[in-house]
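debug: dumping io for the single-chain case to check the tokenizer round-trip. Nothing else runs in this session.
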Amino acid sequence: MSDLVKRGKKVLTPALAFDTQVVAVKAEGCWVEGDDGRKYLDFSCGTAVTNIGHRPPRVVKAAQAQLERFIHSGCIFYYDSLVKLAEELTSITPGDIDMFFVANAGSEAVEGALKLARWVTQRGGVICFRGAFHGRTMGALSVTSSRVHYRKRYEPLMSSVYRTPYPYCYRCPMGQEEGRCSLDCFQYLERLLEQDIPSSDIGAVIMEPVLGEGGYVVPPKSYMERLRELCDRYEFLLIFDEVQSGMGRTGRWFASEHFGVVPDIICIAKGIASGFPLSSFGASRKLMGEWPPGAHGTTFGGNPISCAAAVATIATIREDKLLEKCQELSPWVIEKFKKLQEKYPVIGDIRGLGYMIGLELVHEDKKPAPEITSRLLKLCLEEGLILINCGTWSNVVRFIPPLVVTREELEKSLTILDKAFQRLS
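debug: decoded output
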């Protein structure tokens, strides 16, 4: 344990649960250099934040230029990086979303989206999904259930929150065999509205288009289409939390594009500004334009430097054709994982979109294998590959390389994983 880690443990709360004891001194692209001189291939991306790699040149240049001009506004005056960012978000978000609020973190975006939905509909009820993660502030935590300890000792949380099963086909919440799906999980939601909850009390449904912390689960397209239809039928606002799945992570700007389903409100953070603190939520002018001044607010949200970084991030993804590169290479990565699965049956399921891929590790009886997952991640770290886990049982390996990753770097990561699985065997 390095001296810095020892010092940190004395003054930093254990609630800041670090995934490794690597002490970073420099990072660039897909690589992080430790204080011991070792270089690590970083496929954690700061939990899907550095989507275009560490210290991307356009972002560094834009942030430095803004730093030379001014640092803070706090909605006292207008500034170009904020307006330019909102214009850029209008161009990449789905449907008629064309008005935005800016904040600092994903949890804030979710809180704001929930407030907007309540204000517009004048209905306080919210439907959310089991296994979801939307944040740790009190409102966001109320619709979070990916891991029990996130909620421990914080009850009572926000009232009028109702849970429905996420369409997690590998572990069907309704007990159906994979491949024989009749969307019983959707029928559960319909029965919930028919028998348990007055639909007139519900204002919004909030969902991750790809379940993030809960295990990188991709729902069936038919489920998403029926969910949109249900929200239209009952006049619920559909909120998509794209905090982790957005900004190119899945090979599209937003994961919802894979399903052809457009939300009423979208939450964006993580990869939006390449590591600078920034988040946003957007809706149509029809919805967000109703919000009067002071109905919601922020002091630090939309920091000028963060906004400049976000504009440069979008430009990098677009001009370097990173979405196209992800679409080209990610199917090849999935095929490589399938070959690993043939060799190592501990890999129970492979799922994902683009570079948001999960490997679910299991025992022979298909029960979750968190202890094996933990050992695998440690072995990968020893070989110079940083990966992190997710899933309700902490048994899913997240494979989330930056969009700038090369085929050679992907090959190196796969070689390390193969070696780690061999050592486990």
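debug: round-trip ok. The longest helix spans residues 322-343.
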